[in-house]
Amino acid sequence: MRRKASTGISSLATLHWLRGLTAHCTLVDRGAGRAYADDMPQPATLVTTALANALAIAPGSPLVTYYDASSGERIELSVKTFENWMSKIANLLSDDLGLEAGQSIKVALPTHWQSTVTVVAAWAAGLRVIATDASVAADVTVVGPTALANGAERPAGIVIACSLRPLGGAFVEPLPAGWLDFAREVTGQPDIMLVQQYISGGDIAVELAGRSVTHAELTQEALDTAARLGLRPGGRLITNANPADPTGLVSALVAPLVTGSSVVLVVGAGAAARTRIAAQEHSDCALWLDR
Question: What pTM did the predictor assign?
Fold first, then answer.
């Protein structure tokens, strides 16, 4: 299934994904004294290309760090480890499940490291990401443990369930018939992508409620967002934004990737814990979203 290039779509900047949210950005001036936007790369790099560039330059550098302050869990993915997870998930989607370029996926996960690798794996597999605020049905849906609750709406199509247990553990309780356990299905996949997809800037990356966003538009909005936040190449963003949600997809995932930065995802932390974690992780930019 060949995807058609998208034309005539408004800039992602007009989508107002951050509207209605309170964002606080704390910057550390490293003596540059110049506009941070001057350090931003040109908007020609797609997310998957940016990851490949980072892999070639600094594969051991941290890319995604996840903190759950309530449980004390800390998971850090280097660029190489992130790429391995991305490849495993993309292999499940393309090779095992037979999804073709242009088909769709909805990642209904909370703020978590598995959200980041799943979204990027979907793009690497050539899939369109259906935003959680869109009513469009997806060919495959990735859900967390709350989807097993009594009365929870069961998505149609293929369902992959993530337990979100420490170290990516599998579910201990049985899943609904036909559902796939993320941990059991992904872990044994090869670390190298078996099916390579060609992705162009005009291909659709995200489907929002009534709007489509191309990969080129996504990259441009991420660069604009990074400039507003002061997230420079080599910087380290700390945030509670959800990388799988329209409110955090750009700021918490795409912006760090296309600027050669990294992100620290924090959940369950109060002000004191946020300050402590930011210092421990040497974060130089913070984005806290509160409804």
Answer: 0.85
Strands 140-143 and 128-130, bridge-based pairing: unpaired
Task: Yes or no: say if 165 and 66 are a contact pair by the CB < 8 Å rule.
Answer: no
Domain ranges of the chain: 20-28+37-290
51, 257 in Cβ contact below 8 A?
A: yes
pLDDT in tens, the chain (291 residues): 333 333 232 323 323 333 333 343 433 333 333 333 344 444 447 999 999 999 999 999 999 999 999 899 999 999 999 999 999 999 999 999 999 999 999 999 999 999 999 999 999 999 999 998 888 889 999 999 999 886 667 888 999 999 999 888 999 999 999 999 999 999 999 999 998 899 999 999 999 988 899 999 999 999 999 999 999 999 999 999 999 999 899 999 999 999 999 999 999 999 999 999 999 999 999 999 974
Collapse the DSSP code of 93 into the 3-class scheme (helix H, G, I; strand E, B; otherwise coil) and give the result: helix
CB 55: neighbour CB atoms within 10 A?
Answer: 16
Does residue 91 contact residue 189 with C-beta atoms inside 8 Å? yes
Q: Rounded distance, CA 63 to CA 158, Å?
A: 29
For the record, the structure tokens of 257 come out as: 């990737």
The H or E element spanning position 47 is helix 47-57
What counts of helices (H) and strands (E) characterise the chain? 7, 13
The answer to whether domain 20-28+37-290 has CATH 3.40.50.12780 is: yes
Judge contact between 259 and 233, C-beta under 8 A. Answer: yes
Which uninterrupted H or E stretch holds 84? Answer: helix 79-91
* Contact (Cβ atoms closer than 8 angstroms) between residue 230 and residue 201: no
